[in-house]
Specification:
It is a single chain. The radius of gyration is 15 Å and the shape is globular. It contains 5 helices and 4 strands; from the N terminus they run βαβαβαβαα. Helix 1 packs across helix 4. Helices cover 37% and strands 13% of the residues. The chain has one domain: Response regulator (Rossmann fold, 3-Layer(aba) Sandwich). With 164 residues, the chain is of the alpha/beta class.
Length: 164
């Protein structure tokens, strides 16, 4: 087993909900193996309060979570990325910056809980459903023998997780 820590970036348009949930999940579940980050193509500048409330209720550290532009991760001095996952369809269709080091990419799209309108319960349920979907995908990702798979096999497995 490799002692290497892999850097993972989760992208969404606003970087306020899905990508933030994914960042928090992988940092907790993949601790010691993965360092997760999130960003947006058009960040709205704040983390969605429903995302924060859910993470805090589940005992996640939210202190460092913030909405930020994906340009931060293409700039000099940014962490070298090993994986980049889009978690919304809009970000998947946009032209991304050039990521140094040619990270492996995949689309893990899911519905936007921040776009749900309705009662407090309906909105909270949408966030919980998005969290559960991401948690299932993280479990699949964490079970991959990343250091022992060839690049093409790993890319195919990463893409398959996006439809799980």
């Amino acid at each position: 087993m490799s002692d290497r820590i892999y850097n993972v970036l989760f992208l969404c348009t606003g970087n306020s909900a899905r990508s933030i949930l994914a960042e928090a999940l992988l940092n907790k579940l993949g601790q010691g193996r993965f360092a997760a980050f999130s960003a947006g193509s058009h960040p709205n500048g704040r983390v969605n309060p429903y995302a924060l409330a859910l993470l805090e209720r589940l005992d996640f550290d939210t202190a460092k979570l913030r909405s930020k532009a994906w340009d931060e991760f293409a700039a000099p001095g940014a962490p070298a990325l090993d994986f980049v996952f889009t978690v919304c369809d809009n970000a998947a269709g946009e032209v991304c910056p050039v990521w140094p080091g040619q990270p492996m990419t995949a689309h893990w799209g899911l519905g936007d809980p921040a776009a749900v309108e309705g009662s407090e319960l309906e909105i909270a349920t949408a966030f919980r459903d998005a969290f559960r979907s991401l948690e299932r995908r993280m479990g699949l990702f964490l079970s991959l023998p990343v250091s022992s798979l060839d690049r093409l096999s790993l890319i195919n497995k990463l893409r398959n997780i996006g439809v799980a």
